[in-house]
Specification:
Elements: H1 4-73, H2 79-101, H3 114-155
Length: about 160
C-alpha cells in the first residue's frame, strides 16, 4: 500500500494546479467575451450609422414623392396633406434626435466591462429599431405613391 502522506501531497498539488488553470481559463474566457461584445458593438454602430444615412435620404425623397402625387391627384392642399407635412416635420426632428444619440465609431470601448457593453448593445439596438420604424413608414409611403402613380397612368 502507498504511503498516505505522499498521495495527499500529490492530490493537493493537482488540486492547486487545477484551480490555477481554472482561474486562467476563466480570465481568458472573459477576455474573449469582451472582445466579442466590442466587435458586435462596433458592428451595431456601423449598422446604425448606415441606417441613419439611409433614413436621411429616404425621408426627403418620400416627402417629394408624396407632394408630387398629391399635386397630380389635386390633393396638394388637402387636410391629409397637411397632416402628412406635420408628421414629416415631426419625423425629421425625431431622426435628428436619434442621430444625435447614435454613438461615434471613433470612441474607444476597451475599458468597458462585458456588462457595460451588453447595456450599450441593448441601447443601440433600441435606437436601430426606432430608425428602422421610420424607414419602414416612409418606404411604405413611397410604395403607396407608386401604386397611385400606376393608377393615374392606367387612367390616361
Amino acid at each position: 500500500m502507498a504511503d498516505p502522506h505522499w498521495t495527499s501531497y500529490v492530490g493537493m498539488a493537482t488540486g492547486l494546479l487545477g484551480a490555477v488553470l481554472g482561474i486562467i481559463g476563466y480570465r481568458k474566457a472573459n477576455e474573449i467575451k469582451s472582445l466579442d461584445l466590442r466587435l458586435e458593438y462596433r458592428k451595431a454602430i456601423n449598422d446604425c450609422s448606415s441606417a441613419i444615412s439611409k433614413a436621411e435620404e429616404l425621408l426627403p425623397y418620400a416627402n417629394k414623392s408624396r407632394e408630387r402625387v398629391a399635386a397630380a391627384t389635386g390633393n396638394y392642399n388637402s387636410g391629409a396633406m397637411q397632416i402628412w407635412k406635420q408628421q414629416y416635420e415631426q419625423d425629421t426632428n425625431s431622426l435628428s434626435d436619434l442621430a444625435s444619440k447614435a454613438p461615434s465609431s471613433e470612441t474607444n470601448y476597451e475599458s468597458l466591462s462585458p456588462k457595460q457593453l451588453e447595456s450599450k448593445l441593448v441601447e443601440i439596438h433600441a435606437l436601430q429599431n426606432e430608425i428602422d420604424l421610420l424607414c419602414n413608414k416612409y418606404q411604405s409611403a413611397i410604395d403607396e405613391d407608386d401604386k397611385t402613380r400606376e393608377h393615374i397612368r392606367s387612367r390616361h
